[in-house]
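Reading a protein record of the kind used here takes little practice once its layout is understood. Each number in the token line that follows is a code from a learned vocabulary of backbone shapes. One such record is shown here in full, so that the layout can be seen directly:
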Amino acid sequence: MTFSEEWEQCFKNNTHISVWPWSDVVSYFRRYAKDSKNVLELGCGVGANIPFFKLNEIEYYGIEGSKSAVDRIKQRFPEVNVIVGDFTKEIPIDKKFDLILDRGALTHNTEEGIRNCLKIIHAKLAERGKYVGIDWFSTFHSDYLKGKDDVDQFTKTGYHEGQFTSVGRVHFSSKEHLLDLLQDFNIMILEHKNIKTEIPESKKNFASWNFVAQKRL
């Protein structure tokens, strides 16, 4: 199983708890996927995006590796379809999806796990279905070179300070690497986000990719 036990501990310890819909998720849905009737969210955490999809009357499904996170979701939203599972291995939901959403979840895996998951995603999408990736970390991120090398050149681990503290593996992508990972999809939009802290003066640069990839028939 490739799900990080570090994330289970994060949720148990009430860290990385996001409860409000992510702004990029909202804007990308409005711009590129508003006609979707259903959505599957990978690594849904404690359900930050669920209220947004419920408000828009979108049939919601989720798969999350942390049992602690899923237990919290079921307390808040007992009616939604969320399961515990490792989406790099299988997605045991007998349904095709108009939209599969991944906000910074798959990017916490190795290249092998990511490639396995992308094959599963392609199979689970409906005809002309869309895969929306938000905040896939970029090699321009200032923390890329601070981590320890893991099983491949793009996967780092061992962070003891900053946003990646105690979360286990973090995968970073260059443009070329990302396009290679997504070679079985048609890329509708690919955007690179850079946020540099100027005050107080800092060398920190947050860099990530947002994209919409449509199933190629």
Notes: The chain is about 25% helix and 30% strand. The first strand starts at residue 38 and ends at 42. Residues 111-124 form the longest helix (14 residues). Residues 111 and 153 are 9 Å apart (CA to CA).
